[in-house]
Design a protein that fits this description.
The chain has 281 residues and is of the alpha+beta class. It is 49% helix and 16% strand. One of its GO terms (biological process) is defense response to virus.
């Protein structure tokens, strides 16, 4: 399990050559397109999502960047009732590159790289107190506090002996191997809620999560803005998620029993079903 976890975790080189490099590319592009003299000056970029939490897994697919724009020239008043024009203007800055409008409500700009993978740039205005206005997709805005959510996760990671992020990386492999029914942010937040204590035994942590997770599906946005994170699940999808947890819990318990009996081949077989075909057999 330790080798598998190492294999799916990003290296220090990838953190700088891919993740930080792509964030810096966003900063360069937006600083050029929206300088301090612009009516819509770019302020700063903040790494968000899995890359910021240390839960991103290989191969690196997407990197999330929060792009904060300044209201120093009263730009907010221009776009207050028309977030679509704001988003389109940011996307236009990437003319000539392969882009797409993405997100649950079409509130981000996705920039694709020829080398593979992409960056999702979420352009926002700061409303103060770590609350940001994000385009809603219908011309309106939604409030979001991703930096607050990130800080909360970082605190939970420390409280759990720095064992939370590694476990979440394994859970993402499970999720990806079984229809990817759960959104990444939802899964991360569930894992942070499930445990009061968490050791470094990954097999034990996974088994406990699968057993307890059905009671923690309805977690709230730790940023305090989006309410319940399970709202995207239909009744049918919710039942499928619960059944997936139960099936994984059963297999994980059997894998641990097999390992205790010295049947390492059977244990590996079961973990491979749980965590996907890249798990060593």
């Amino acid at each position: 399990m330790a080798q598998f976890l190492d294999d799916i975790s990003v290296t220090d080189y990838q953190k700088t050559s891919i993740i930080e490099a792509r964030k810096n590319r966003v900063i360069e592009n937006l600083t050029t397109a929206f300088p301090a003299t612009s009516d819509l000056p770019f302020s700063r970029a903040v790494l968000m999502g899995s890359a910021a939490k240390g839960t991103i897994i290989r191969p690196i697919d997407d990197v999330d960047v929060l792009a904060v724009f300044s209201n120093v020239n009263n730009a907010w008043s221009k776009y207050q009732y028309d977030s679509q024009s704001f988003l389109y203007r940011i996307r236009k800055a990437y003319d000539g590159l392969s882009t797409a409008q993405v997100g649950a409500r079409g509130q981000a700009v996705r920039i694709f790289f020829q080398s593979g993978g992409h960056v999702d740039v979420a352009p926002v205005f700061s409303h103060g107190n770590d609350v940001y206005g994000l385009p809603k997709g219908d011309g309106g805005w939604i409030n979001t506090s991703p930096t607050v959510a990130n800080s909360w996760f970082t605190k939970r990671h420390a409280e759990l002996g720095y064992n939370l992020s590694p476990l979440v990386r394994l859970l993402k492999k499970w999720n990806g191997a079984h229809s990817k029914r759960l959104r990444s942010f939802h899964l991360e937040t569930m894992a942070a809620h499930v445990f009061s204590t968490l050791g470094s035994n990954r097999q034990s942590g996974l088994t406990s999560f699968f057993e307890w997770a059905p009671n923690h599906i309805d977690v709230s946005d730790p940023g305090g803005q989006s309410g319940s994170l399970s709202g995207y699940l239909s009744w049918t999808a919710r039942q499928e998620v619960i059944q997936s947890f139960r099936t994984a819990a059963d297999r994980a318990a059997k894998a641990r029993a097999a390992e205790a009996d010295g049947d390492h081949e059977e244990a590996k077989r079961l973990w491979r079903i749980i965590l996907g075909s890249t798990f060593p057999n």
